[in-house]
């Protein structure tokens, strides 16, 4: 799930890794630098995200991540699957499961 949350955070704007860690943590998801950076590396290798280096006003350059077309497609596929899954689980949790 974390992978797709990262893709969702990148859908509108590029971000650097620590920014992603902060936003995911604020949303209540377990996210540490030790979790996010390997995930971002894997997403880059799978060509779901691209990277660029940008100067930082407060230190060394930062690596920014943005979605590729392939990443947008993966996010769209997941969003459809998640919606169907959530609907099914809600149906059962609300006591409308079939017997």
Helix-strand topology string: HEHHEEH
Would you identify the CATH H-level superfamily? Answer: Winged helix-like DNA-binding domain superfamily/Winged helix DNA-binding domain
Largest sheet, strands/sense/barrel: 3 strands, antiparallel
What's the CATH class label? Mainly Alpha
Overall body shape: elongated
Low-confidence stretches: none
Helix-strand category = alpha+beta
Report how far the terminal alpha carbons are from each other. Answer: 30 Å
Give the proportion of residues in helices.
55-70%
The number of domains is 1
Second rung of CATH, namely the architecture: Orthogonal Bundle
Task: Tell how many strands the DSSP assignment holds.
Answer: 3
Strand order of the largest sheet: 1-3-2
Q: What is the helix tally?
A: 4
Here the CATH topology equals: Arc Repressor Mutant, subunit A
Give the C-alpha Rg: 16 Å
**Average pLDDT score:** 91
Q: Tell me what portion of residues adopts beta-strand conformation.
A: 15-25%
Main attributes of the structure:
three-stranded antiparallel β-sheet, 3 strands, elongated, 99 residues, 57% helix, alpha+beta, Arc Repressor Mutant, subunit A
Characterization of the model:
- There is one protein chain.
- The chain is α+β, with helices and mostly antiparallel strands.
- It has one domain: Orthogonal Bundle (Arc Repressor Mutant, subunit A).
- 57% of the residues lie in helices and 19% in strands.
- It has four helices and three strands, in the order αβααββα.
- The chain has a three-stranded antiparallel sheet.
- β2 and β3 form a beta hairpin.
- α2 packs across α3.
- The radius of gyration is 16 Å and the shape is elongated.
- The two termini are 30 Å apart.
- The model has no long low-confidence stretch (mean pLDDT 91).
- This is PadR family transcriptional regulator.
- It holds the Pfam family PadR.
- InterPro entries: Metal_resp_DNA-bind_regulator (IPR052509), Tscrpt_reg_PadR_N (IPR005149), WH-like_DNA-bd_sf (IPR036388), WH_DNA-bd_sf (IPR036390).
